[in-house]
Amino acid sequence: MERFPGQPSEPLEHDLAFEVTKEKALEALQSGNMELVRSWYDQEAAIADLDPTGRGRTLLAIELAKLQHAAGYDDEAVSSLDDAAYDAVGQGGEDLLVQIFHLKAEFQKR
Hints:
Shape: flat
Radius of gyration: 17 Å
Order of helices and strands: HHHHH
Helix content: 55-70%
Structural class: mainly alpha
Strand content: under 5%
């Protein structure tokens, strides 16, 4: 990255965005800290919206379902997968549908 006159060589601490990792989102989900889970989702949604294929939000719904399943929220995970499947059908994403249905079967075994 090119530096400009007067620009610090390292980002200032207050310039660094607070990033919620998937691991922190899982811990937050397990402890009921839905505000932190929402922060993770919003941060990932902003990235997903940049996906030129249009599949970003569908993939995000799948990731959310995996987190929900890992935290023991299987009904919510299946609901998130249903949302992802609806999006995938609209996008012609047969490969995503296969992945979604496999996950759904796995989540419903519990």
